[in-house]
Design a protein that fits this description.
single chain
């Protein structure tokens, strides 16, 4: 089998840089990687999880959202839906006040678009939870 880099697998072609001296994947040096040198910061610095305030807000909204769905499924559905609406309203408030670099996973689109969509869904859920009439209980047929 003919290998374009050289005669044997792992051998470099004449005049090329040996694989051991080549930079990392896709031609990036280690200094380009986070925590890999001067460009990425000190190599010994530990990464914080979540690494932004917005990431922490996102995790809180996610937790409250899951709790709200559980409450809506097994308890008072109106309270669960309103709890979800409140979580989305909180996400909108966080997205509104946090700068782009700190917004984390709350930043999906432009700030105004994110806030308007979150507020619109929160208001819609809140209003629908209050406007949907109670349904009659199950009909029991005497028998």
């Amino acid at each position: 089998m003919i290998h374009p880099e050289g005669d044997e697998p792992g051998e470099a072609a004449p005049g090329s840089t040996p694989p051991s001296e080549q930079s990392g994947p896709a031609g990036h040096d280690q200094a380009d990687q986070p925590g890999g040198g001067p460009a990425g910061g000190p190599a010994d610095e530990e990464r914080r999880y979540p690494s932004t305030i917005g990431g922490a807000c996102y995790l809180v909204v996610l937790g409250v959202g899951v709790a709200a769905i559980v409450v809506a499924a097994i308890g008072d559905w109106r309270f669960g839906v309103r709890l979800l609406a409140g979580a989305l309203g909180g996400a909108a408030a966080c997205r509104l006040v946090l700068p782009q670099r700190d917004a984390g996973m709350l930043a999906v689109r432009h700030r105004l678009v994110d806030v308007v969509l979150l507020v619109a869904v929160a208001v819609a859920l809140w209003v629908l939870a209050g406007d949907i009439p109670d349904q009659p209980g199950p009909v029991v047929v005497p028998g």
